[in-house]
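Hi R.,

Here's the chain you asked about this morning:
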Amino acid sequence: VLSPTFNIVFEYEIKKFKIKHFDLYRIKNYEDIKNIGLFENLEQSITLIEWPELIINKPLNRVDLFFKYTKNYNERSLVIKTDGRLKKHEF
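And the predicted structure, written out as tokens:
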């Protein structure tokens, strides 16, 4: 999956699923987030978000992935946190 930095969002359809991949790096404020359709049809699609720090009210049912580089930047670690109805599941 390519990062949509220039376009802000890429959409993919895989069989019955729609995947929306947002990159908020160039977004300047929360008002801009409301205008790009980020919160539309959350139940009918899988939404991936890079740089989610500007989102004030995050959806309740979500999986957060936190990547962290090692000191020499040759490896990354991953922490997975769940919320809402997904909190019951182990990843």
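The radius of gyration is 14 Å.

Let me know if you need anything else.
M.
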